[in-house]
Specification:
The structure is a single chain. With 138 residues, the chain is of the alpha+beta class. The protein has a single domain, classed as 2-Layer Sandwich (Alpha-Beta Plaits), CATH 3.30.70. The longest helix is centred in the C-terminal third of the chain and has 11 residues. The chain is globular, with a radius of gyration of 14 Å. The structure holds adenosine-5'-triphosphate and magnesium ion. Adenosine-5'-triphosphate (ATP) binds next to helix 4 and strand 4. The site of adenosine-5'-triphosphate has 11 residues, from helix 4 and strand 4.
């Protein structure tokens, strides 16, 4: 069990003005922000980030969506961070997300689902390093 995970507030939530609301939920759930930046992914960088989904039918749609506007990327710290953050964001499909989760409140569809959360300690480390150097992590 590691104490760090990685998140992105996706372009849909950014465009809809939900960045502050999502950060408040993250804060209230007890996560500490280790690093944070707002940036926009090129299609190439979005494709690289989600390369694990390359063979999936929604890959092209996912890359276009993730590069269409700004995102906020962050490394978060808390005990049991990966698992607890996946609980906080809720199911991939917001129709199946529990009450009180970020996706229940802010996601609009299975594709445009407001936030990303790492699915393992190993991926949390890789994804955090994708956006932040050691000097940018506090
Ligand atoms: P994320 O990795 O972004 O936290 P997740 O782990 O809940 O989401 P994954 O299976 O890793 O879900 O899918 C990555 C992303 O691809 C989803 O968050 C969503 O934006 C998109 N996606 C997944 N399934 C579909 C689908 N059936 N149709 C369209 N987009 C999808
Ligand atoms: Mg995933």
């Amino acid at each position: 069990m590691s104490n760090r995970t990685f998140t992105m507030i996706k372009p849909d939530a950014t465009q809809n003005g939900h960045t502050g609301g999502i950060l408040a939920m993250i804060n209230e759930a007890g996560f500490r922000i280790v690093a944070m930046k707002t940036t926009q992914l090129s299609a190439e960088k979005a494709g690289e980030f989600y390369a694990v989904h390359k063979e999936r039918p929604f890959y092209g749609e996912l890359v276009a969506f993730m590069s269409r506007g700004p995102i906020t990327a962050a490394i978060l710290e808390k005990s049991n961070a990966v698992e607890d953050f996946r609980k906080l964001i809720g199911a991939t499909n917001p129709a199946q997300a529990d009450e009180g989760t970020i996706r229940k409140k802010y996601a609009t569809s299975i594709g445009e689902n407001a936030v990303h959360g790492s699915d393992s300690d190993e991926n949390a480390a890789v994804e955090g390093a994708f956006f932040f150097s050691k000097l940018e992590q506090f």
